[in-house]
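Revision sheet: structure tokens.
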Amino acid sequence: MENLEQRWESLTLADDFLFGKIMSDPKLCAEMLRRIFPDLDIGEIKIIETQKTLKHALHIRGVRFDILTTAARNIFDIEAQNRKLKDWYKRPRAYQIVIGYDSLNKKSLKKSGSYEDLPNTYVIFICTFDLFGKGRHIYSFRNFCAEDKEIELNDGAYTIFLNTKGKLNDVSPGLKNFLNYVGNGKVVDNDSFVKILDEKVTEAKNNTKWRNEYMLLLTREDEKFAEGIQSANERVAADMLRESYPLKAITKISQLPEDEILNIAATLGLSV
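Predicted:
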């Protein structure tokens, strides 16, 4: 429990749990989007969904979004990412697919029957590391013709990677202040938005309901991890039993006690 308490106290806005809680405030979320997209008319945000899972068909894997919100004819998925995942390059595509599938199922789109009514989708990853190693604060992707970069597909699908470790002067001071705060907790005195975020993080640490929710979440994740290890060890033991390894070797490699190995053997109809 002490370790969980320490993890809670050390949380920053870069953590997806805290990020989702604080950015569920429509005004804060809207200001963040305005800093990321200064040329877009963000307008008023009314509905924000956090840790939402979309899955509309048995053959489509569910995707959980940190922040999912709509402004005008734009859908924004914002993800706080503090560790590099092996599948990072395919993850945005999966998010775009699921958001698109959800949009196609909307009654309004079914009624119009026009793909033109599909909303623009922006999948945004706020990373505490430089994914591409070029020192940029922002890496934006959209579809162009490979043979002629002046031809853009204009399909309304955009992927943006923000980097809190950026070094170039490639974004506005406001966005740079925001990214610096997410990355290292740096508060700029003349930036009221960043100061409010810092106050919200402090308030969150004193929110007993959120604290308990976080503790429960971590406990469940630890239990799933332990179950995964146990299951893997049992598979190792079963494979070794099938190969007629001696009990001592199976115990050492699978890290299971002898009685569990004997039970596995009995279930498989094998003798040790």
